[in-house]
Amino acid sequence: MSPTRLCVLVLALCSVVGVAVAAGPQHAIAMYGKPKYGPDFTHFDYVNPDAPKGGTLRLANVSASTFDSLNPFILKGNPADGLSYVYDTLMVQSLDEPFTEYGLIAKTVEVAPDRTWVRFTLRKSARFHDGTPVTADDVVFSFRTLKKEGHPHYRLYYRDVTSVEKNGPHEVTFHFRSGHNRELPLIIGQLPVLPKHWWKDRDFSSTSLEPPMGSGPYRVAKVEQGKRIVYQRVKDYWARDLPVNKGRYNADRITYDYYRDGTVALQALKAGEYDLRQENVAKNWATAYNIPAVKKGQLIKAEIHHSMPTGMQGFFYNTRREVFQDPRVREALAYAFDFQWTNKNLFYGAYKRTESYFSNSELASSGLPSDAELALLKPYRDQLPKRVFTQGYKAPTTAGDHSLRGNLRKALELLQKAGWHVNNGTMVNDKTGKPMRFEILLNSPSFERVTLPFVDNLKRLGIQASVRTVDPTQYQNRLNNFDFDMTVYVVGESLSPGNEQRQYWSCEAAKTQGSQNIAGICDPVVDDLIDKVINAPDRDSLITRVHALDRVLLWNFYVIPHWHLDYFRVAYWNKFGRPKENPPYGLATDSWWIDPDKAAKLADRLNH
User: b vs e for 545-564, b when ≥16 Cβ sit within 10 Å of the residue's Cβ?
Assistant: First the structure.
C-alpha cells in the first residue's frame, strides 16, 4: 500500500472512531467543536476594548469571620477575597462559549492525536511581578506542588495526569492515563502558575499574610488583617495587551472591606461605603432598596440574566450518619420542607424550585429517560431505584399555605417502611427504640428563618431536629472533617461537567477530608457514571451521561433541594460603564470600568 493511501486510510479510521487528528500547536482549545474566536482575534465580544483605566473599585465581603491567609491553594486557613487577581493561568476561559480556553501564559497548546498528552509553549514575554521570566520550570513546580501539598481537591482533580515534563525553557508536556478524558487538556489550561524561585525558601503548606508573588494583573498592595485587603493594578503587567485581556481589569485599585453582619453591610452599600453588591437575600431585593438613591437613578438595581447551570443548593444529608443511611428516611424528610410556603412568605415568590443538580441548563434531566439514557442505565438496573427508569423526579409540593397534612402522611408511611414508628409523640427506631434526633448545621443566622419552619414541621412527625449556627471558621472545619448531621450547602456546576464530579460524588472523595462530597456518597454506580461523564466523546453523549448521573443522584435523595434564580441581582452605584451585552456564562464585572463623568456627577449629587 502506498504511503498516500495509508495516510488516507488512517484519517478515515480516525474519523470513524471519533479520535482527534493532531492539528499542531493552536491558539485555543474547545471541549467540543471549534473555538468561536480565531487566531487573529483582538478581544472578546463582551468587552469594550477601549474601556478607560483608572479609579477604585470598592467591594465587600460579608462573613462572620475574616481572612487569616494569603495562600488560597491549601486546606488551612481562610484566604482573602480576590487572590485570583494575583495569578495568571496557562489559558483563559471565555464566557460566551460553553467551555473554550485561549492562551494566556501559554502562547499555543497542542493535543496528541490520541489525547494522551497536552503540550504548552509559553510566551517568552511572560513575567512575574519582580520581572523574573515565567518558564517551564515554574509550570512543572506549580503542578507538582499543588498535587502534593495543595488542597486535597487538587489530587482528585489531577488524578488522571500521570506525569509532567519540561521539553525546553518554554515548553512543557503533561501526560495522561488515557485519551478518554476530553476535559483534561482544558483542566491543565486552568493551572495557576506559581514562581518557583519565590517559594524556594517558603513553606507552601503554611498560612501566611505575606503578599504573594504572582504574574497576574494585580498585586497585593495593603493588608489589614480582619478588615481589608487592597489590590493595585500592575501598570507594567506583561499581558495587558493580549486579546484575552483587552477591555478587562480596568480599575487601578480593588478593595475588599470585611463586614461581620449582613445588615450592616447592606447599610454600608446604601451609605456609599462600597460600590457594588450581588444581592443574595430575596427579602432585601424586594424591600430594602426602596430608598431615594434608587429612585433618583444614583443606585442601580439590575437583574442580569444568564444561561449558567445553577447547581444544587439544599439541605445536604451526611449519609455517614446511621440515621440517614436509608434512602426511604431521606425521601421522607423531604416532605417536611414546604418550599412553596417558604418562597411565598420569605422570598416574595422570587425563586424557582430546584429539581436537578444541573438546573437552568440542557444538562438537567426531566421527564422520562430517553432511549439513550435507558441504554446507559440498564446494566445497573438491579442496583438502582426502580423510579430511575419509570419516573421523572419531582420535588414534594404544597399549595403554599402550610397545608402539609398530605405530605406528612407520605413521610410517615415511608418512615414506617424504613423501621420507624411514633411512640408517645416521638419518632423511634423499631429495633433500638432510639429517637430520631439530628442537628442542622448553619454558618449564617439568615438561614435560620428558612430552617426553623422546617424543624417545626419535623416535630409534627415526632422528629427531634435542632439548629446550630456557628462561625464560618468552625463551620468549614466541621465540614472538612464531616462532623455534622445535616447542613445547607451549595454545589456549583458548569456547562461541561467533568473531573470535578469526582470531588462532589465519588467514593474516593467521600473518604477524603476537605472534599466537597459532604453527603458521603459512595456508590459504584455513581462512580461508573462519573467516569462515563469524564470520558464522553462528544456533546450529545455528555448530555446523555449527565442526565443519567442526575437521575441517579436525585432518586437516592442525598439532598432536600432548595431553589435557584436564572439571573444575577446586582446593586451598584451609577459610576460605571458597562459593555452593551453581558456574556451568557458569567457576570463579567472585570469588564466594567469607572466612568469619570458619571463618577463626578454622582459625587456632586451625593455631596448636595
Answer: bbbbbbbbbbbbbbbbbbbb
In 123-227, beta strands by DSSP E: 161-168, 171-176, 218-224
| Rounded distance between C-alpha atoms, residue 195 and residue 116, angstroms | 27
Kind and range of the H or E run holding 581: none
Residue type at 92 in one-letter notation = V
Q: Which tens digits make up the pLDDT trace of 441-486? A: 998 888 999 999 999 999 999 999 999 999 888 999 999 999 999 9
Distance CA 167, CA 458 (A): 62
Q: Nearest-CA neighbor of 126 among 47, 239, 293, 241?
A: 239
**Residue pLDDT, tens place only, 571-601:** 999 999 999 999 999 999 999 999 999 999 9
Buried b (16+ CB within 10 A) or exposed e, 114-139: ebbbbbbbbbeebbbbeebbbbbebb
Nearest to 108 by CA among 157, 45, 44, 173: 173
Cell numbers standing for residue 271: 451609605
Angle at 325 between CA 324 and CA 331, to 5 degrees: 60
What cell numbers appear for 463 in the block?
422528629
Output b/e per residue, 394-420; b: 16+ Cβ within 10 A: ebbebeeeeebeebbeebbebbeebeb
532 phi/psi in degrees, rounded to 5: -70, -40
Q: Using an 8 Å Cβ cutoff, are 311 and 359 in contact? A: yes
Query: 371-387, pLDDT tens digit by residue?
Result: 999 999 999 999 999 99
> What H or E segment, with its residue span, contains residue 294?
helix 292-295
pLDDT of residue 23: 66
Task: Name residue, grid cell 444529608.
Answer: 317
In SS3 terms, 361-428 reads as: CCCCCCCCCCHHHHHHHHHHHHHCCCHHHHCCCCCCCCCCCCCCHHHHHHHHHHHHHCCEEEECCEEE
Please give, one letter per residue, the 3-state secondary structure of 125-149: CCECCCCCECCHHHHHHHHHHHHHH
For cell 469619570, the residue is 596
For 563, phi then psi, to 5°, come to -155, 175
Q: Which residue in the block uniquely carries the three cell numbers 434512602? A: 327
Instruction: Kindly state the cell numbers that stand for 513.
Output: 477530608
Cell of 498: 467533568
Residues in the chain: 608
CB 478 within 8 A of CB 470: yes
Domains, the chain, with CATH or none: 18-307+569-608 (3.40.190.10), 313-564 (3.10.105.10)
Residue 18 is placed in which grid cell?
471519533
Instruction: Lay out the sheet containing 218-224: strands in order across.
Output: 56-62, 253-259, 228-233, 218-224
Which residue, chain included where needed, has cell 455513581?
526
Q: What span, in angstroms and rounded, lies between the C-alpha atoms of 193 and 209?
A: 20
